Amino acid sequence: GECIVQTTQDLAVVYAKIERHQMLVVDRSGSMTGPSGAVTSKMEAAKAAAALFVDVAAEDDRLGVVSFTGDTIEPDAVLYGDATLEHNLQPVAGNRLTAQLKIAGITPGGWTSIGDGMEKAQESLTPQSTPASIDHIILLSDGQENEDRCWSSAAFCVPVGPLTEDRFTTGDGDDTIVDAIAFGPTADQALMQDIAATTDGD
């Protein structure tokens, strides 16, 4: 629909169609294989949620998919090397099935670099961002980060490079909204809530 997106001067506004740019960021670390004895693993639950999100996304929105893991080696030889751009940020129309197939092919293993995943997603959002777009990351993870890039400095994630939180508060990601969806009974709820609260997400 038509929405107010920008004030230009007193008593003047610009009307434009809001376009949502959405990046699904999926945790594919080894911890997503659990919990032990569960009918559905965290990985399968996250993939199902991601596929459902693609299913209901509007045709004229743009959507991309990133997955992340960790290899215990820092710094990475390639910037954000623990994250993979599975599906480029592009219109949903005509690309819905491709995105869902990419999600279906994600398999778990390795450590957890949440920062690499989020920053890789922001790399896709920044060049396509416009005054009429809403930049949005949907983070699907158990929050058990243990490898740089770290969202914040914590006992289980020792930063080697800049903190990802800084990019989303004072850098090119400061207008990006992050909805953080936690999976599993041992999820780091505090971390996931902090990511969402800091970025005005849920």
Distance between the termini: 23 Å
Assembly type? single chain
Radius of gyration: 17 Å
Sequence of secondary-structure elements:
EEEHEEHHEHEH
What is the overall shape?
A: globular
Rounded mean pLDDT score = 93
Strand order of the largest sheet: 5-4-3-6-7
Structural class: alpha/beta
Notes on the structure:
- This protein is α/β, with parallel strands linked by helices.
- 28% of the residues lie in helices and 27% in strands.
- It contains five helices and seven strands; from the N terminus they run E-E-E-H-E-E-H-H-E-H-E-H.
- The protein has a five-stranded mixed sheet with strand order 5-4-3-6-7, with helices on both faces.
- Helix 1 (42-56) packs antiparallel against helix 2.
- It starts with a strand and ends with a helix.
- The mean pLDDT is 93.
